[in-house]
Amino acid sequence: MKNRNVLFIPAVATLSLFLMGCPKTKNVVPPVDDETQSSVQASYVNYLVSDIEMLASFMGEAQEQNHFYNPVDAIQIYNTPVLSPNGGARAVSFNHQLCKDGRVRHGTIYLKYVVAPEYPNARYMRAYKFDAHIEFSGDYSVDDYNINLNVDDGGYFTIVNTLPSEAYSPASTKLTWKIDGKLKFTHLTDPRKNMTWEGHWTKTLNNTNSTLVVSSPTNAINWYKAEVSYAGTSMGTIPLANSDGVIESKTFNMKINSERPLTRDFQCTPDPILGVKNNGNNGMTATISE
């Protein structure tokens, strides 16, 4: 077995997947053609995961009708929230619709949570003790990939608020969340391009102290003005062409350093999905095994 230790940033920057500024074109599925693309493939599956998490973040603030991923045709499928004193579920659905970020989505993504009686506000992502898991309808897809939890040893995706106490000051405490999951990305037409992802991230709302983002601890987060960052580890499998041009499944391991995290600045561009950058030249490294 040989390991390719790939310094992530140069390849990604040149291919407009993780960018230092405001990109002009949307992030696209990278080709699977050479060694350099291995790092891009790994970053692409991480990007898809961060999109899932951001859509869930809107649901976690009861904003499932107003988010970055609304359909271009403005035909929003409404799902009545299931709410009770002990928990609830929210959902966002699509019907083969082109969305504002340039991707085509279909199916439903669900956010489900349990609320302890002593922490009634834990139904919101901003609140202490928020603990939610994400589920998908069987047909949920983004572009060419069906996204599901059908991993051999059990899939899951969870988001947990890490506030140390119920009372906090946005001026001095940044909101953070633990994101853990194991997902499968099944290509709709070519099984050779299937991917898997397992990750353990910390998400930080970098500008928690902005009153345009968090006007008070009890008000919803304004994600449209947010700058968030991700740090942690991920691993999985990605498609990669060998020296003969044959697409094979390769394993990858990636670390995103907390000192130079992956940052998504949603004020960067009128189409906020495109505002992706990395802070520094040594923020991410990946190992591809063959």
Tell me what the structure shows.
The structure is a single chain. This protein is mostly beta strands. It is 11% helix and 38% strand. The chain contains 2 helices and 15 strands. It has a 6-stranded antiparallel beta barrel with strand order 4-5-8-9-7-6.
Q: Terminal Cα separation, in Å?
A: 6 Å
Nearest-angstrom radius of gyration? Answer: 19 Å
Mean pLDDT: 83
Q: How many beta-strand runs?
A: 15
Classify the secondary structure makeup into a structural class.
Answer: mainly beta
Count of runs of 4 or more consecutive helical residues: 2
- Spatial order of the strands in the main sheet? 4-5-8-9-7-6
Shape: globular
Biggest sheet details: 6 strands, antiparallel, barrel
Uncertain residue segments: 1-25, 269-284
Q: What is the element string, with H for helices and E for strands?
A: EHHEEEEEEEEEEEEEE
Share in β-strands:
35-45%
Helical residues, percent: 10-25%
